[in-house]
Amino acid sequence: MSNETHSQPSSQSTPEARTDRSAVHESGDTSQFADATVHSGPQPADAADGDSSTPSDTNGGHSSQLVGDTLAIGYPTTEEPVVEVDRIDLPAGEITALVGPNGSGKSTLLKALARQHAPENGTILLDGDDIDDFDSKPFARRVGMLSQEHESPGGMTAEELIYYGRYPHMGFFDAPTSEDEAAVERAIDLAGVDHLREAEVGNLSGGQKQLVWIAMVLAQETDVLLLDEPTTYLDLQHQLQVMELVQTLNEERGVTVGIVLHDISQAARYADNLVALKDGSVFDWGPPDEVVTDDLLETVFGVVATVGYGENGPTIMPHHPVEQ
After folding, report:
1. Which residue has the higher pLDDT, 196 or 152?
2. Rounded distance, CA 150 to CA 221, Å?
3. What backbone phi and psi angles, to 5 degrees, belong to 259?
4. Is 55 helix (H, G, I), strand (E, B) or coil?
5. What's the pTM?
6. Strand 273-278 vs strand 95-99: parallel, antiparallel, or unpaired?
């Protein structure tokens, strides 16, 4: 299965906190509200609710599919695209993990899918609609993104932060509605952070912070959830908490998940599909049992390893780096 022969298938927050929501990226990434700059993707003005000229902000209660076709993604500082992908699928109602070594293009590709970084070429479709045709808030009601790096204003409690996830559903000066409060309570319960709601985010441990940030994006209640390395720098306990939370969200709510992971063993355990990237292109994709092989680990990750297969998916026994 190589990239040359295998293509992919078709409580309330404070008034100050509410005002600060105006700086949230409307691309779907509420984790970056402290940064007032817009992302590099298109930023059409919000249309009035019910505008038939733009795609709907609801999919009728079904799981959503996100597909990228003929993508070339670069940066102003690069002459050539850093990612070139014929096709990338996040199948509806499934967990798809993007894996690969550092610099392989995982995060860049995820940002493009989240409309945070515009491709130089190609299209990205959400249930058949071009994501560039969505107005900002309707798109953020469909696709949520949690980036690797995020900062919260000083003195903010966990509960106040989680309310930022409701920004796409609220007007500029609107107070939270009963629906918003219910969504926040559901997110707090699912993420298991009720005991942290009054704590200041800056005083939390790394693992606790990450769970609170995830609760924030859960409060957004989107059809698609994109997570960029959510387990990085966490101890093993918190890594497992995060991954089990993602799995529960997928299984109980049918949320389509795209997640970048460095740990291929975690990816193989929790994901329905793996997309292995090497040098900015798709090396292989498919179910973990098919993708994770001795050859993949050696060719893509530069590790000589033995792969075993069991009820919980592939198990990896690394031996040594490939000799240069």
Report:
1. 196
2. 19
3. -140, 130
4. coil
5. 0.82
6. parallel
Largest Cα–Cα separation, the chain: 60
Q: How far apart are CA 27 and CA 147, in angstroms?
A: 12
CA 184 distance to own-chain centroid: 19
In terms of DSSP bridges, do strands 256-260 and 273-278 run parallel, antiparallel, or are they unpaired? unpaired
> Do you know the residue count of the chain?
324
What are the helix and strand counts (H, E) for the chain?
Answer: 10, 12
| 301-311 per-position pLDDT tens digit | 999 999 999 88
Which residues contact residue 240 at a Cβ distance below 8 angstroms, ignoring those fewer than 6 apart? Answer: none
Query: Token pair of 284, please?
Result: 């292989």
| Cβ partners under 8 Å of residue 289, min gap 6 | 309, 313, 314
pLDDT at 106 over 50: yes
Cα-Cα-Cα-Cα dihedral sign, residues 119, 164, 177, 22:
negative
**What φ, ψ does residue 96 adopt, rounded to 5°?**
-120, 125
